[in-house]
Each structure stands twice: as structure tokens, then as C-alpha cells.
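dumping this here before i forget
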Amino acid sequence: MSPQPVDPLKPYQGRFEPRNALPAGGRSKEDVYQELATMAAEENARWQSGQVSGTFYHAGEAHREFLNRVCALFTHVNTIQFDLCPSMFKMESEVIAMTARMLNAEAALARNPADQVCGTMTSGGSESILMAMKVYRDRGRAEKGVTAPEIVMPDTAHPAFDKAGEYFGIRMVHVPVAAPDFRVDPRRVEDAITPNTVAVVGSAGNYPYGLIDPLEDLSAIAIERGIGFHVDGCLGGFILPWIERLGYPVPPFDFRLPGVTSMSADTHKYGYALKGTSVVLYANPRLRRYQYFNVPDWPGGMYASPTAAGSRSGGLTAAAWASMVYLGEEGYLEAARRIMAVADALKAGIGTIPELTIIGQPTFVISFRSDEVDIYHVNDFMKTRGWRYNCLQLPPALHFCVTLPQTDVSGLAERMTADLREAVAYAREKAGTMAETTALYGLAGSLDGNRQITELVYGVFDHLFGV
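structure:
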């Protein structure tokens, strides 16, 4: 009898007893720990090879162990209860201040003494983006009487902006990007602005290609139209400053631009903190006030929270603070130097393969496409060699995001280049056939296809969560 195929989304079925109800007497601590340790070891082995794009942004096992020790000191602490745990106020305000300084808050202050850059910590990039979009919606209503708010964003901006639109009743106006630049065209952004527009969005850099939008032009448009301008630095906010300092041609992307009124930057990516923290910054406290939430007449007492979350674990705040203070400028600069050495080698290797075209002028995220072979066949082959790229669509492409784990693997760029050469040859042989990688994207050519994709994705969620 042949063995049952393993469900790739549920590889532990049949290996560990399912827990569909609380165990009657509980299990021993060691038993519980060993089961979890087995899962962790197997899953860590995948990204420790250096062949996984992005995903794991940590600065080595010693750093992670240090952060876990710090986190354990405050895991029981609720960050919203500052009176009982004033350490939370100290650490969160300092994380915000350090991030603001890194992103050139002094430039805003020099232009206008009232523009004291400020912000809050959040649970991640999505919440940072959500909070900023809420701010612009509420400011537009309060200060301009806008009741049908619109925000203009490039197609390449993170889907969290669309999530904000759905959650908060904001019409998100998409502006397409196109070859050869693959960055948003400022003229098209300006054309999309209406009297209901409360803000525009740009990325530094965007997730698909790692490219920085023409932020200087968008800044000028925002000033001229008297609207907000949010720069999404969730991905690049904690690495672009150091890449720039290394001498790479990075255009201004932060509060040096006078039109920038808010930014998001993830401490849990290239800030090398534990997962679950981000920072959202505003050009002045007046803007930040629109983020706060308050119910003054609740029977349980006046309720107020600065972000979408109520309770948050102080352990994550402490770990973010510890990571930044421990690494310091020298640590971040050295991490960027190591990452860019690998990224430069990868770009050079991909550039020697005529069938592949690198998109734009990337830094730490290298995206590439092909006009000669099906790039999804290339991905099919690379998966057999253990590589995990991020697959892009519109147009079809792949990207590889370099993080510190890649810098610990000798000969990574040479190995990837050699495997890509074989992958291109494989893709030529498979010309005219359907690639496995296209199964999801192949449905996206029509409205009905998009409905099928939605049903497919939601079905996966139902499967994962046991429905």
C-alpha cells in the first residue's frame, strides 16, 4: 500500500497527535517543548541554507538568543499600562526617537520648528500603514470636510494600503507602473488627484521590485496640492540609510523631502528586532492626534489607545529597543555592507545570463524577468534546487530579497547563477507547456479569474485553520 501524500501545508499530520480539544490532564513541559523544538528545527533548516528570499530578517543566532532573553523579561507586561510599567514608555519613546533621527527628522525641524517628528510603535508594517491612512481620512474630514476620501497609490504599493481602504472606507486610486522604469509616473499621480484626495503614497522601496518611487516629485505634488504624503519604508526604512552611507546612489526618501508627512519603517525587518514591531512617524504631533482612539464615557472608565491594538506584549518592545541599542550605527552599517556585497554579486551573476533582465536599479531586492523564456518555468526548476523566490505578476517576474542569513553562506551568488543558467535551459525545453508556478496567476486574466483566485486563497485559509 503506497503512503498517503504529505499535505505541504500540514506536514505534521500523522506525526504528532492532533489537539482538537484541551487534553484532560495536560502534558509535561518537556513533552510539549520537544514537539515544538522538532518543528522549529525542521523549519529553520530551510532558511538557514541562505536560499530563501527575505522572510527571515535576523542578525544571527547569538543576536536572536540575546533578544529572546530580553523579551522574556517583559513578556507578561502590557504596553498600554504605562503607569504600572513605565519602562514601556521609556523604550517605546526611544525607539520612535531613534527611528525618527535615522530618517532625518532634523530636516523637518529645521524647516519648521512646529514640525517635531513623532510617532508610535505598532505590531507591524500593516498596522503602521493602516494607522497612517486613518490619520489622512480623519484629517480630511475634520479640516477639509472631505466625506468621500481618496488616496492615490502606485500599483506596486503594499496591499496593506488596500486593506486600509476596505477597513476605513477610503477609495484607493491605483496608478499603474510600466516598463522600462517600473516606478510610478508622477504625472499620472497628479492626474489622479481630485478634490477628495487626502494623500498620496510612495514606496522606499516597493515590495515587488525593491525600487524607490520618484519621491522628490511626489513630495512637490503633495505640497502644491496641500495633501498628505506617506512614504512606505516598511521594507527599506532600516537599511536604505546605511546603504546610502556606504556610497550607493540612494535618492532622498525620508523627512529631508518637505512634502513627506508620514513614514512607516519596520523594526522587525532590517531593524533586526523580533517579529511583531514597527514604527509609524508623522511630521508633527497634530497629525498623530488623528491616530488616537478614545471612548470617554465607557462604564469601565475612560478608554484610550494610541494604535489599533489594545494590549501588546512589552517583550517585543523591549527586544526592538535592545536590538537598536545593541547594534548601533556601526552594527547597522556593517550589516548593510555585508548584504550589499551579496546583492552586488547576485546582480552581477544574473547580468551574465542574456535571457534574464534585471528590473530597474535595485539595491537589496533583485527582481528579474524574461522576454525569451517563461520565468515561471525558471522558478519551477529553481525550487528543485532548494531556492525559494518570491513570484511576481503583471509582468511575470521573480525577486530575491537579500537578508543577513545569505551573508553567512559561502559561494551563494555563484551557486545561484549556475542554477539559474540551468533553469533557463530547462525553461527553453518546457516552452509551450504550463508551468506549475503559473497555476495561481493563470487565473488572474479576468474578473471571473480574480473571483476564482479569491475563492482559492480563502479556501486555503479555511484549510489551514481547520474549517
